[in-house]
Amino acid sequence: MDQPSPAPTEQALPLSKIVVLDLTLARAGPTCVRHLADWGATIIRIEPAETTGEDVAGKREGFDFQNLHRNKKMVRLNLKSPEGHAAFMRLVEKADVVIENMRSEVKHRLKVSYDDVKQVNPRIVYGSISGFGQSGPYGKRAGVDQIVQGMGGLMSITGLPGQGPVRVGVAIADLTAGNLLAYGVMTALFERHTTGVGRWVHTSLLEAIIFMLDFQASRYLMDGEVAGQAGNDHPTGVPTGVFPSSDGVFNIAASSGRVFHRCCDALGKPEWKDLEAWDTQGKRSKDRKAINAAISEITRHKPAQHWVEVFEAAGVPCGPINTIDKVFADPQVQHLGIATSVVSEKLGKITLVASPLNMTGVSKKIRTATADAGAHTDEILRSVGYTTEQLAALRAKQVI
Question: I want to staple 32 with a disulfide (CB 3.0 to 4.6 A). Which of 132, 182, 250, 356 is the partner?
């Protein structure tokens, strides 16, 4: 009888056989690569041979860079030089994936585009993120998260009514594009098992943010309704929003008929269930202000924790509104282990945000902290045949 397969270990993570060349910058591309890195892919990050702003102490060793670039091998390589380009193509021969988020003309100028690398390795899966798409009227424009939040409509529906456009508090276009590209890359890798051939997978910040409009987008496309700012209220589901307590504010979500009835009972107002003016979601939506005011008049007299316990017991979704320090102090967050420590050679023990995904039998701990620029250059280039003498020559020419 065959022995059962051992549980996956650090040496056998789900993506441990995948090699990724990371040409990414800023946030969107690194977000994609981080997913692949966290689940075991060998990430070879290609950085310029010359000193860049990322090398300045305080930036490279800062919280953002450390959180984005863990679990990677770091290589310095001047892609503008013939020798550096040749070294990159040697790496391409053995790689599975290339990820980049350069402006379109830059990758073509450097001769590291999909058309270039597939000539060397037809199996390569090439992932790209741009600001506005790889072609079209805006294809050559650089994309920045806040610009795209505005152009993609998100800022017009964020914030309090009449407040004017408001950006989301994180780089949501960058992050979403990165998340989507990781999904696309994995889809292409899955297909490659059958075809033996890679693909170019690409998205943009603009496409990602329109995708994130979700029902607000389909609301316009199907019904012609242009959503505006709804503040802390759900745009269509009532009552869902922020309500006062005697010591702050908290959230309630009770938009469906059944949950609204539970909410009425929890508030000590069972008679509200029989009000004809509030007996459907559509009617409640039209009378949002009156419903919110009536609920607020009750909740404002007792602490938020009291109401959280009352509504939780009644089966009404609710919760506190935490500052970030309180998020990481929350017992459920601590139980989930999403704040994970790793030891950095320079910084000592640091804590970063782990993958939000969970797989049975696989630890999602962060394996290695972000390394210094070029820390693995010799190791990686030796793996594709460079000798000590050749490395010394490349270093003398400032190729590495």
Answer: 182
